[in-house]
Design a protein that fits this description.
This is XRE family transcriptional regulator. The protein is of the alpha+beta class. It has five helices and ten strands.
Length: about 200
């Protein structure tokens, strides 16, 4: 005899959304502005009048700095045990260029929910990084902490000095070189497309 499958109760996403929003002291207008979801849509979701799509949930949780699991758990994520990850320098994953003169330490956690990646870049004199185009809409940010780099972007060549930050996007194939006599230290951040939705 077949047993009837008992399904779990559908989570109250609207109620959980309201709890999380109020915990962060956000008005409907503020959350709408941060997430790109209209105020009227937010109100309907919180009152259980509509079921949000995954894309809408993603934008809302990102705007509030929470995990989608917090919504599914009924807004009780704040009570979960805090997680602290301490990664030693020697265990930080890294990418090396073919000539061994450039090292990119991967600082962003692999399981991050944020649409960005960040790296610590070390370039010995004569080092060069040839990059390939990133997903459409990606922006790149480079801050030079020590030394200087030469950035070739399409048909433009720019010197980026110590202490300077350069941002460009959407990202296309480009080249970064260290033509100086000093080792370069820099931070590189890749902001993926969802960071810039609706921006020109």
């Amino acid at each position: 005899m077949n047993k009837e499958l008992k399904l779990p109760n559908v989570p109250d996403l609207g109620g959980a959304l309201q709890v999380l929003r109020k915990e962060r002291k956000l008005t409907l207008e503020q959350l709408a502005s941060r997430s790109g979801v209209s105020k009227s849509m937010l109100s309907q979701i919180e009152r259980g009048k509509v079921n949000p799509t995954f894309a809408v949930l993603w934008n809302l949780t990102f705007a509030m700095g929470v995990d989608i699991a917090d919504l599914v758990e009924g807004g009780k994520g704040a009570g979960r045990k805090q997680v602290i990850e301490h990664l030693k320098d020697y265990s930080t994953p890294e990418i090396r260029s073919r000539d061994g003169k450039c090292v990119l330490k991967i600082l962003s956690p692999a399981r991050t929910i944020l649409p960005m990646e960040w790296y610590e870049v070390t370039m010995e004199p004569g080092g060069r990084l040839d990059t390939v185009p990133q997903p459409e809409g990606t922006w790149e940010h480079i801050t030079v902490q020590e030394g200087q780099i030469l950035l070739t972007l399409s048909d433009r060549v720019m010197e980026v000095q110590e202490g300077d930050t350069i941002r460009f996007g959407p990202t296309v194939a480009h080249e970064i070189e260290n033509r100086g006599k000093k080792t370069v230290k820099a931070l590189m951040v890749m902001a993926l497309p969802s960071q810039y939705q609706g921006k020109s």
